Inverse folding.
């Protein structure tokens, strides 16, 4: 066998070896995944948004574009048991409204939404806490009353002259669950109001939804984002874009408490607005 033929055989063998190693180390899977998550229209859509004064601070998700169907059910609350915890000085029930002896009020709407508030004369006159101190005070209240679920995430903190409002949202793995929240108002380090609506553990289903590309969701949201930008500087930034679920209840007063959730893209803007785009065509 001459040297030229031997060299060709050796090169071919090395190529086969490299291909085998590439596949064994997961390189082939990564290549397939990269191709499956590639969004070729994204640069063009970003350029279009920039041209309309819409910037993007968010990391654009790069994920397999499908999402498993889930069923959601609101967590039902036993109002009398909750009244025993929150209205420790005693209370009177009047047509579903629990009135504490100190004037505090508690109602559980539709067995799923908690609304609790102390009378104004019990609010502390104090400067608002620093952000992290406020979060810690709010989370201590949640823990004390059994509401410190691991599936919560800090969502928003707003400061008023005499109080701070904290809000948590529910998540399911990396996905958001819309229409589920906990909200606390603090004066100083004292909780003066509390609201909560939360889901039980989501129940995954066998069917899978195919999700539209992030570029298409951004394009579909562009008109709404640009049309309502106001102020001396009409530019706005998209601070986050994420995929998740929303239970279609029709309204906040609907008596629908469970069902299959619909996938949505959610975009949070720098001016405080939140935009939703249906994620399934």
């Amino acid at each position: 066998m001459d040297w030229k033929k031997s060299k060709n055989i050796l090169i071919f063998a090395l190529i086969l070896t490299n291909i085998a190693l590439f596949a064994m180390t997961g390189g082939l899977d990564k290549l397939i995944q990269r191709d499956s998550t590639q969004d070729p229209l994204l640069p063009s859509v970003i350029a279009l948004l920039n041209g309309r004064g819409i910037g993007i601070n968010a990391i654009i998700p790069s994920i397999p574009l499908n999402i498993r169907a889930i069923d959601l059910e609101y967590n039902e609350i036993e109002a009398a048991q909750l009244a025993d915890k929150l209205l420790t000085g005693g209370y009177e029930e009047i047509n579903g409204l629990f009135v504490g002896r100190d004037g505090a009020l508690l109602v559980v709407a539709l067995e799923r939404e908690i609304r609790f508030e102390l009378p104004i004369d019990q609010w502390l006159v104090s400067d608002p806490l620093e952000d992290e101190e406020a979060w810690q005070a709010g989370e201590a209240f949640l823990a004390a009353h059994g509401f410190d679920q691991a599936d919560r995430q800090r969502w928003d903190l707003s400061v008023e002259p005499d109080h701070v409002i904290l809000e948590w949202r529910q998540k399911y793995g990396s996905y958001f669950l819309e229409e589920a929240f906990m909200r606390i108002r603090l004066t100083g380090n004292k909780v003066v109001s509390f609201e909560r609506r939360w889901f039980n553990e989501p129940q995954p289903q066998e069917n899978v939804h195919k999700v539209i590309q992030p570029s298409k969701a951004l394009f579909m949201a562009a008109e709404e984002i640009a049309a309502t930008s106001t102020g001396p500087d009409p530019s706005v930034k998209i601070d986050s874009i994420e995929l998740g679920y929303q239970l279609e209840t029709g309204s906040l007063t609907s008596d629908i408490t469970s069902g299959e959730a619909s996938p949505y893209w959610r975009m949070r803007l720098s001016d405080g607005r939140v935009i939703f785009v249906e994620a399934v065509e």
Observations:
- DSSP finds six helices and 15 strands in the chain.
- Residues 39-71+207-278 form a domain with the Lipocalin fold (CATH 2.40.128).
- The first helix runs from residue 3 to 24.
- The longest strand covers residues 175-187.
